[in-house]
Amino acid sequence: QKPRLNATLRTKADLTPESFQLKGFKPSELPVDTSITIEQKTALVTDNSSKEQGSPTLRTRELPVPQKFFIYGGYVPVTMEMMLIRYWLAHGRKTPLPLLPVGEVFIEHRGRDTVMVQAKSVVFDRYHLSGSKWGGGWGRQTLWLDSKERLVAAVNLGTDRETNISAIRDGYESKLSFFLKRAVEDGIDRLTQAADRLSPRNTTPLVLLGGTLIDGTGRPPITNSAIVIQRARIVAAAPRSEIT
Asked: Pick from 6, 44, 127, 228: CA 20 to 30 A from residue 79's CA?
């Protein structure tokens, strides 16, 4: 079930938020009523702190405003994510970027993808968002913006709390399968890069000596074996006496 929410964001010319309002109902039918107003170095936050349906209670608090920040709330339209990336691009690409009233977001430019649209080749910038926001985890989202920084597609592959979510700009519906596939590929690429950072690939051969080798072919186990690995590939596996 889609949330029934209205969101309004007002910013300065440089995209720094001035006010934000979010009102309506979550998919669980819990009411949402949030407003944030920035007054110099202070954020005035009024929101619905009640978790029980039918009796919302509004509370107001003041929060310090970081030097660079953005505003975000749960279940907002994907347009807010487009504005978030625009702000990030315009303000030095700092990461993580603090969020008000709570949380932070990590934004990464992952590269560019070329898509054929109406027999024309169009290039989109691909971004990855992760982090936390109030009301739950952010999840991991992949977004594509065109040369005018307009959101073209957004894919959330889901977490333990969320199901898969996708959105696409009018006129690009036929390319949804491409964006879904590319988001999965990009996720695999990120995991591979993280693994390489944690465990860099060896530039010299790695030799495993003395173990009992069961090669999975049905042949008898090889005791006191030697396995030679070079550039992530097994190049030799035999009894130790046969390996130089």
From this structure: 44
Q: In which residue are the tokens 């069961």 written?
A: 214
Place of tokens 């910013």: 11
Tens digits of residue pLDDT in 76-123: 788 889 999 999 999 999 889 999 888 889 999 999 999 988 888 999
What letter does residue 51 receive in the DSSP assignment?
A: -
What is the full DSSP assignment across 161-219? S---EEEE-TT-GGGHHHHHHHHHHHHHHHHHHHHHHHSPPPSS-EEEESPPB--SSSS
* CB 43, CB 100: distance < 8 Å: yes
CA 16 – CA 32 distance, rounded (Å): 24
Q: Phi first, then psi: give them for residue 185, nearest 5 degrees.
A: -60, -40
Round to whole Å and give the CA distance between 28 and 22: 16
User: Is 107 in contact with 85 (CB distance < 8 Å)?
Assistant: yes
Who contacts 243 (Cβ-Cβ below 8 Å, separation ≥6)? 207, 226, 228, 236
